[in-house]
Amino acid sequence: MMKYSVGLPTCMEGMMFPVPFATPEQVVEVARHAEALGYDSVWGNDHMTTQQYVRGEFSEPPNFWDILITYAFVAAATTRLRVGTGMIVLPLRRDIVVLAKQIATLDHFSGGRLEIGVGIGAYREEFEALHPDWKVHRGDMVSEGMEALRALFTERRASFEGKYYSFKDVEMFPKPLQARLPLHIGGNSPAGVERAARHADGWQPACLPVETLRQSVERLRELAAGHGRDPEAFEIAPQYAVYVGRTHEEAVAKYRQSQMCKHFDSLSASTLKGQKGMDHTDVNLIGDAAEVMAKAEALKAAGATHLMGIYFAVNTVPELLDQMRVFAEEVIPGVG
User: Fold this and answer.
1) 122 pLDDT band (50/70/90 cuts)?
2) Domains plus CATH for the chain?
3) Which of 217, 218, 228, 269 is close enough to 303 for a disulfide, judged by CB 3.0 to 4.6 Å?
4) Cβ–Cβ contacts within 10 Å for residue 209, how many?
5) 265 has pLDDT over 80
6) What pTM value is reported for the model?
7) DSSP one-letter code for 90
8) Residue 105: which residues within 8 A CB-CB, separation 6 or more?
9) Any residues with CB less than 8 A from the CB of 56 and at least 6 apart, and which?
10) Neighbours of 278 (CB within 10 A)
11) What are the angstrom distances between the C-alpha of 303 and each of 200, 220, 226?
12) Angle, vertex CA 91, rays to CA 304 and CA 71, nearest 5
């Protein structure tokens, strides 16, 4: 059975959704709705400052809710729903020990319902705003950060000496409640696949065409085997935009009118730079229920084990709640 999870609007205003979009109460409402509909988990994203293209479009700044603090409230308001970061931008966080402590604490308070995805971040301008004098290779920093987190989560007294992170004789307790807290790495590039195969429990690409996903999954499993890891043990958890319409034409029109459509345009120079000229309504799960079902089945056949980031192309919270219901009732049962 493939798993299905919903994007939680933590840092999505001005990007995937308009400004303003969701209050704290509505963010929790979305999570409760996801649990009631049977989704596996919710996944929020991570931003610290407003992107230039968002500033150019909106006169009012967006609210970017801190993802880990948000999950403390979501966990308290739910009982079964898992919560995941899709993704924490590791290069924005300089103190890896503090981050590890926050993660372990949240895993305990949620009853072991936390999963962590990390990435380099789609917008280098955001990194440069926070750390204007810090010259780093963000990919190397993510790899190093994953090693540091594993050490802090598993060793009684952890020490680490790297280029970007270092600590000595840190006795960080409690460890996460889960015996092995799932750590995932995002990124569409070959380097992202390599980092996932070497360091992670799962891989979180975004909006890949089916054939590209299939080839990347094959490559990831080949690399994992080369690192002495079980190639079948990885969670393949891609993110896609979704709109389920009564007709294909209605779905495409709704997508074109959404802030999500503009967001994908903004990613053409970073995350989606390999997809120039492609129609995002074809790549993503846009269409009537039968079309979306067929696309989901194709992704499953290509190796996806978890449609982790289902980001609905809507402009209001009531639309989001309704699309979550339609997908849960009309798509998931037909795919399994």
Assistant:
1) confident
2) 3-335 (3.20.20.30)
3) 217
4) 16
5) no
6) 0.94
7) G
8) 174
9) none
10) 14
11) 17, 11, 19
12) 60
Give the DSSP H or E segment for 185: strand 183-186
Taking CA atoms, 115 is separated from 176, 234, 291, in Å, by 11, 14, 30
Q: Which two tokens stand for residue 316?
A: 């209001």
Cα separation of 97 and 198, whole Å?
A: 21
Tokens of 332: 């998931």
Rounded to whole angstroms, how far apart are CA atoms 294 and 90?
A: 35
Using CA atoms, how far apart are residues 148 and 142, in angstroms rounded to an integer? 10
User: Does pLDDT of 37 surpass 70?
Assistant: yes
Question: What is the C-alpha to C-alpha distance for residues 291 and 244, in angstroms, rounded to an integer?
Answer: 9
Q: The tokens of 212 are what?
A: 């590209």
For 312, the 3-state DSSP assignment is: strand
Is residue 277's pLDDT more than 70? Answer: no
Task: Please state, in angstroms and rounded to a whole number, the distance separating the CA atoms of residues 233 and 224.
Answer: 10
State the DSSP string of 63-82: P---HHHHHHHHHHH-SS-E
What is the Cα 160 distance to its own chain's centre?
Answer: 27
Could you report the per-residue pLDDT of 127-144, keeping only the tens digit for each? 999 999 988 999 999 999
- What residues form DSSP beta bridges with 56? none
Q: Which of 146, 153, 75, 84 is nearest to 115 (CA)?
A: 84
Tens of pLDDT, residues 200-234 = 999 999 999 999 999 999 999 999 999 999 999 99
Tokens representing residue 315 in the block: 């402009």
Q: Can you tell me whether residue 290 is helix, strand or coil?
A: helix
Strands 235-236 and 239-245 come out as unpaired
Neighbours of 132 (CB within 10 A): 7
Which residues, at least 6 apart from 18, have a Cβ–Cβ distance to it below 8 Å? 58, 259, 315
Q: Determine contact, residues 120/90, Cβ cutoff 8 Å.
A: yes
